[in-house]
Each structure stands twice: as structure tokens, then as C-alpha cells.
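chain below, 293 aa
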Amino acid sequence: MSVVSDSRTGTRLRIKASEMRVAEASKSYGDAHFRTDVVKDCSFTIERSKLTVMIGPSGCGKSTMIRLLAGFEAPSAGTITIDDKKVTGPGLDRLVLFQETALYPWMTTYDNVLYGPRARGATNKETLELAEFLLNKVGLQAFRDKYPMQLSGGMQRRAELARAMINNPHVMILDEPFRGLDAMTKELMWEYYSSLYEENRRTNFFVTTDIDEAIFLADRLLIMSNIPCRVRAVLEVDVPRPRKLAEVVENDRANQIKMEALSILHEEAMKSFSRGSKAAADFVEAYSKRMKG
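prediction:
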């Protein structure tokens, strides 16, 4: 367990990090007449206190895997555990940050951060102090009374991070949280999020389609196959922390890992393209036969 504290106020956030395991997990949709295997015999570990990044082609099943990890859906086969306990549904030990902002537009930044504790009836003095501490931590103390529409995209993401951290999950699950930001803001958020992780060492599972984002953030990189989703390769991103983008861009080891990852991703993208072309050709052929008949 790690502790993040504010020397000025004495506010302390005790962080417990958990480990998750995915063992031969599969997820199918449809029925006996038409079934699609989105995830098939997928196995990997989200190591305790590590930032694990999953990257793969668009539409390969990454979002489905997030729903399985969060407990929003159950696997068709296989198991998913957190600290050796089977995941049977959503829980306070896991929190998901999605692509779209989830801030309530009628609430101020401060009220948005406190939404979780208030919903659980846990608004004691310590929680209120923690909200102030986290607003300082994400640099939004001066914007505590502003509404989401008055915040920039980067500020909204930071407010969501504070709202997530006040619930103190053991595992943070993030689905391309910076995807909608402009390039400069996105890169600033990479460095900001990396510094938060380096300070608290909470277990993180981060999904992206951006190779530069993946290399900069990851301790471990899971490269996924095209649908059905399974782990194609696991790369250890042994680049020293703390990390600065300008330094990582010039780091020989980071660039070596990037080239290896890109080679695998290119193979999977070509498989997807070929499969899509064949599927389209088969459809046209079947449609033509039907029209002639």
C-alpha cells in the first residue's frame, strides 16, 4: 500500500493496488445460427502497481475486454479475477474512465469530484478535505466552482481523474481517455498522467490505438491480435522513470520497442484488411447469385 499526502494539510490518501488475471477468457455474441467470437482464449496479467497498456487494431475487441474487466459483462468462457477473487460484476475495487467525458454538466467541478462519496453517504470531514487535496493535485483548485462547459478538454479530463481517485479504486481502467484532445493537450496529459502514476503506483490498465501514447505510458505493453481478440505479444517497456516526452522520443530503447510493436501491429492490420476484402467479395458474390436466381 502506498500513501500520497499533502504536507500542508496533513491529508493522506492510502492507495491499495490489486492484480488482475485473465485466464482463457472468451466472449461471443449471437446465437447458434450466427455467432461472432470477439474475444477468444485470451490470457494476460495486469500486474500490481504497474501501468499496463493494451494496443491493437481498431475493432479488435479492446472495448469488449474493458467491459469484461469492469464486470459489466461476463465472459462466455474462462475466468477473470482480481486478487484471486472471481469478477462477477462491477465493484468499487475497479473504476473505468471512458473516452467520452462523464462529468455532470449541472454540477461544479467540486461537486463532480464529490459525486461518488455523496452517492455512498460518505461525506465526512476527511472526504471533504480529500476532495480539496485532489483538486490541488490535478491543478483545478482555482476552478472548483466552474461547470464542465467552462473547462477546457484537458481540464475536464483532470477533473475526471480527481473524481476517480477520490473513490480510491485498486485498479484504474482507462479506455482511450485522451483520444478527443488536440495533439498538444494530449501530450501534456500523457506527462501529467504519467507523473500521477509515478507518485501513487496504483494499478493501471490503459487502452489505446496510439503507439506513441502506449510507449510513453507503459510499463508493460500488450499487443492484441485482430478479432477475435487475444494477446499477440507482451513487451516490457524498460524505459526509466520519471519520463519526459522529449527524452523518451530520443531514447534508443523506446524507439526499438516502438519499431517492434509497429511491425506486429502492421501484420495484424494487413490481416484485418485481407479479411475485410474477402468478406466483402464473398458478400458481393452471394448477392449476385441471389439476384440472378
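Residues 279-284 have pLDDT under 50 and may be disordered. DSSP finds nine helices and twelve strands in the chain.
thats it, cya
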